[in-house]
Structures are given as C-alpha cells and as structure tokens.
Amino acid sequence: MNDAEETAIPNLSHILSKLRLTIPVGAMGILIVMVLRVPTMAPDLLIGLNVTFSIIIMLASMHILQPVHFSVSPSLRLIKTLFRLALNAASTRLILLHGSEGTVPDELHAVARKRIIDIVRNQNENEVKESI
Q1: Any alpha helices (H) in the chain, and if so which ranges?
Q2: 105: burial class by Cβ within 10 Å (0-12, 13-18, 19+)?
Q3: Residue 52 CB burial class (10 angstroms; 0-12, 13-18, ≥19)
Q4: pLDDT surpasses 50 at 8
Q5: Is the CB of residue 72 less than 8 Å from the CB of residue 60?
C-alpha cells in the first residue's frame, strides 16, 4: 500500500462512522417537520428532495441483481413513507394557515398536465394516421 491509500482508509472509516447518525437525525427531522411550523420555502425544497430520493431509490433497485442485496428495502420504505407524510402535513398546514401551497406543487401540476395533453395529442395523431 502506498501513502495515499494508507491515509485514505482512515478518512473513509471516519466518514462512515459519522454516517451512522444520518438515519436517527433524519427521523428526528421528519418529526420536527410534522410538529413545528416551517417556512413556506421549506416544503418546496423538501418535495424536491423527496423526488430526488425516489429517483435514487428506483435507480438503486434497478441496479441490483438479486433482491437479497436490497435487504434495507422495508426500513427504507418506512422512512420514505414517514418523510412523505411529514411533507403532506407541512403542505396542508401552509395551505390552511396562509392559503398558499408553495410553488413546487403548482409547477409539478403544470408539468403533469402538459405531459398528459401531449400524450393524448400524440395518441390522437397516431389514430388519425392509422385510419388513413
């Protein structure tokens, strides 16, 4: 082993020892979001984080070859469900208190509506071309 590898291994173990606290700190963060009022921008950022987290989980589950290798799935699903529940509670609280739901749900709704319209329009064009 050279000097770079010897110094990298202790740094890696130091980083991994600090990552052990991410799940408990994340669970406490979820409970704080459910109980306390959060600023209007916080649910928007957390919804974006939720979508990113979902994509990462999907890509990781597609990458594994055997289901046994993804044995963390039940606990990960529980944490993700609690996170989404906290986001729903925070968004509902903002809507009831301020009459606004932030910008991300509106933007997601607009994007989804545009995609659905495009799919229906392309489907109708394909049916017209097939009938001709």
Answers
A1: 3-19, 22-35, 41-63, 73-98, 104-131
A2: middle
A3: exposed
A4: no
A5: no
**What are the structure tokens assigned to 95, written together?**
């809507």
* pLDDT tens by residue, 25-65: 888 888 888 888 888 788 888 888 888 888 888 888 888 88
Distance from C-alpha of 28 to C-alpha of 83, rounded to nearest angstrom: 11
pLDDT digits (tens, 9 = 90+) for 78-107: 888 888 898 888 888 887 887 755 566 666
For residue 107, the model assigns a pLDDT of 67
Domain ranges of the chain: 3-101, 103-132
d(CA 56, CA 51): 9
Length of the chain: 132
